[in-house]
Amino acid sequence: MGDLFLVKRTRGRVGVLSNFGIGAPVIVSIAEEMIAWGVRRFVILSWGGALQKELNTGDIVLNDRAIRDEGVSHHYLPAEKYAPADDLLKKKLEARLISQNVKFTSGGTWTTDAPYRETRNEILQYQSEGVQTVEMEIAGLFALAQFRGVQAASILVVADRLANLKWESPADMKAINQSFEIAYNTAIDALNEDV
Fold first, then answer.
1. Beta strands, E only, 105-148
2. CA separation for the pair 141, 26 (Å, rounded)
3. Distances (CA, A) of 135 to 11, 61, 71, 102, 140
């Protein structure tokens, strides 16, 4: 499921999986197989919606935790609100972004399986808690990684916005694409460290 590429500049030590679909069930299924093959570190590059008003299209967010408002994570961990990112891997990503003078935000994300059921009350609640973004995969991957004893972190690029309590489509695909290029190179370099 999806296309797997080995990155030349890492001499094949880092792979990139793309075109696999969306949602936590897909991510976790693929990651389970990759763990069985020996993969021990994952960085998910995702796009998501801004919940905070100061976030704009193309902004980069490192998620330190994910609200588990999807179904998959509950099959891996006992009930808790958040699934955490691997702190060490997140710090490697953070250090790479800082060394490139890239502006980014750190904070939580809200993972949901129902993007058309993001209610006004939920958005207001998560905004008040400082949750930065909303997306569909990250909590599942973080929970799986914790359960299997591997590392997982995420770099999210803001695409659309819910911060003003209505859906706002992406304002600038060029900014999104530029940020994804930064995120891609940052993830490859961080994963290639100490391999």
1. 105-112, 133-135
2. 10
3. 32, 12, 14, 22, 11
Distances (CA, A) of 48 to 40, 44, 110, 138: 25, 12, 10, 10
35 burial (CB, 10 Å; 0-12 / 13-18 / 19+) is middle
Question: What does the pLDDT profile of the chain (195 residues) look like in tens digits?
Answer: 677 777 888 877 788 778 777 889 999 999 999 999 999 999 999 999 999 999 999 999 999 999 999 999 999 999 999 999 999 999 999 999 999 999 999 999 999 998 889 999 999 999 999 999 999 999 999 999 999 999 999 999 999 999 999 999 997 899 999 999 999 999 999 999 875
Amino acid letter at 143? A
Domain boundaries, the chain: 3-192
Domain 3-192: CATH superfamily is Nucleoside phosphorylase domain (3.40.50.1580)
Structure pTM? 0.94
User: What is the CB-side half-sphere exposure of residue 163 using CA atoms within 13 A?
Assistant: 20
Number of Cβ atoms within 10 Å of the Cβ of 110:
28
